Amino acid sequence: MYKVSRNKLSKFGIINFIKRNISIDFVYAHCDVPCGIYDPFDAVMAAKTVATMVEQINTIKDTDEYKSNSGSIEIQNSITRRILVKEEHAERVKREVLILWTDYFKASDLATIPDLHDLIWNTCKLASLAKQTVSTENANNLVESVSKVAESFNKVKEARAKG
């Protein structure tokens, strides 16, 4: 047992004491129980964000200021910020799509969507490709693929509701 004086626990001392002496691991997950709250909305918005960031990066690269002074800190900052957002949202696409695949979709849903596994796999691969490139075509393919995942989700949801 720890012996701690009152002075050490004053103000923020308690918080610091806990941080130093108790190991806390943070776990991030959608849900560990069948809550039934699933929606492809976040994946769709993340894919659209990837496409928007690619468009904005390409727009910046097409400016005279970039072409004449691409080394300026303002230009670098502007592009870097968009790259970070693109990366984060491409990763979010993968996370959200995989949550649907592992937690929402069931083996019985393959009767409704026979190519579900390929669709999910291809969508995640497209998200990875979107991270690796600044390609409008790749970003648009990601948006299209995530839209197909959303359509599949809605078909399955409708089929389940009919019983």
Quick synopsis:
With 163 residues, this protein is mostly helical. The protein is 69% helix and 0% strand. The N and C termini lie far apart (57 Å).
Question: What can you tell me about this protein's structure?
Answer:
This protein is mostly helical and 163 residues long. The chain has a single domain, classed as Up-down Bundle (Four Helix Bundle (Hemerythrin (Met), subunit A)). Helix content is 69%, strand content 0%. The protein is built from 6 helices and no strands. The longest helix is centred in the middle third of the chain and has 32 residues. The radius of gyration is 23 Å and the shape is flat. The mean pLDDT is 87.
Fold blueprint:
Elements lengths: L12 H9 L19 H21 L2 H6 L3 H32 L11 H17 L3 H27 L1
What labels would you give this structure?
Four Helix Bundle (Hemerythrin (Met), subunit A); 6 helices; 69% helix; mainly alpha; 0% strand; 163 residues
